[in-house]
Amino acid sequence: MDNTVRSRREAAGLSQASLAEALGVSRQTVNSIETGRYDPSLPLAFAIAVHFHTTIEEIFHVDHQES
Amino acid sequence: MLTTKNRRKTIGGAIGGAIGGMAAITAIAWIARARGDVGFANGVIAGGAAMILFIATALAFGRRGPSFLRVAGGFADERERILALGAAAHGALAMVLAACGFAVFWPNGPAIAAAGAVLWSGLLATAASFLIRALRN
């Protein structure tokens, strides 16, 4: 699954550590989500969307190459 | 996130666990020493003390530490819980395979060797699985 977490985080001027702190997860988890190695659970995806004042669909997209 | 209430619970659990662990170590070492197994008793004390020290380190520094310390300290997030669950499953599978292998290939072997093979295979498989999957996921 593709996502725009990294670009949104950088646009907000946040480090991975500070985003992780805000979401209540580890910095490694934020890094794994950004690189597409880990797909977050629905509650975490919601938390990310709420943090960036948008919707899940705006952040996470189906990777057509993968499917 | 750790609220004040959760933090109190974590610290309370840690203190209770440490006291329980020390009591268990003392009892096992005392029984082993009374039976004349001095080496085993010393091993229990050394291993138990090392484990309590490791858990204390995980509780003190685990929150911002690497994944395995976060899991050990009870600070794991959803990804780390999945990694830990998978690693535990791999460890259990390795222990079953080690026990079966031992029973088939060395049925009259000493019990202590079988116990060692089972425990070490489980420990190593769990650690290896967690490390590899943490790096890949």
Question: Roughly how much helix do the residues of chain B carry, as a percent range?
Answer: over 70%
- Following the backbone from N to C, one meets helices and strands of chain B in this order, namely HHHHH
Uncertain runs of chain A are: none
Terminal CA distance of chain A: 9 Å
- The class by helix and strand makeup of chain B works out as mainly alpha
Number of domains of chain A: 1
Helical residues, percent of chain A: 55-70%
Average of the residue pLDDT scores of chain B: 88
Number of strands of chain B: 0
Question: How do the strands line up in the largest sheet of chain A?
Answer: 1-2
Largest sheet of chain A: 2 strands, antiparallel
Apparent shape of chain B: flat
Multimerization state: heterodimer
Per the CATH scheme, the topology name of chain A is: 434 Repressor (Amino-terminal Domain)
Q: Please give the number of β-strands of chain A.
A: 2
Low-confidence stretches of chain B: none
Structure description:
- Chain A has 67 residues and is mainly α.
- Chain A has a single domain, classed as 434 Repressor (Amino-terminal Domain).
- Chain A is 55% helix and 6% strand.
- Chain A is built from 5 helices and 2 strands; from the N terminus they run βαααααβ.
- In chain A, strands 1-2 form a two-stranded antiparallel ribbon.
- The radius of gyration of chain A is 11 Å and the shape is globular.
- In chain A, 22% of the residues are buried.
- Chain B is mostly helical and 137 residues long.
- In chain B, α4 runs antiparallel to α5.
- Chain B is flat, with a radius of gyration of 18 Å.
- The chains are: A mainly alpha (67), B mainly alpha (137).
- The interface between A and B is small, with 11 and 11 residues.
